[in-house]
């Protein structure tokens, strides 16, 4: 398959994103702030603390993905408006990490 044909395979791309959302290749991620900060939740974190979170759990959170978060639904990645691929923010779809140290394979 040539790249142009692959780019037109929206449902295939959506199915791959959905599989990665539910079954992330790395189930946990660790971050460490370089200076004191406050998280959006209001929790304070000090410099060099180790913050561990579950990418596996994030992919199943109803507050993030809706009531059907545990269901395999590639359609959630397809825009109802134009039928194209919907791009989710990297801080929501964390499979490839986010920020300056994101995945080279992305």
Automatic annotation (TrEMBL):
InterPro entries: Cyt_P450, Cyt_P450_CS, Cyt_P450_sf. It comes from the Eukaryota. Its cofactor is heme. One of its GO terms (biological process) is lipid metabolic process. GO terms for molecular function: heme binding; iron ion binding; monooxygenase activity; oxidoreductase activity, acting on paired donors, with incorporation or reduction of molecular oxygen. Keywords: Heme, Iron, Metal-binding, Monooxygenase, Oxidoreductase. Belongs to the cytochrome P450 family. This is Alkane hydroxylase MAH1. It comes from Noccaea caerulescens (Alpine penny-cress). The lineage of its organism: Eukaryota, Viridiplantae, Streptophyta, Embryophyta, Tracheophyta.
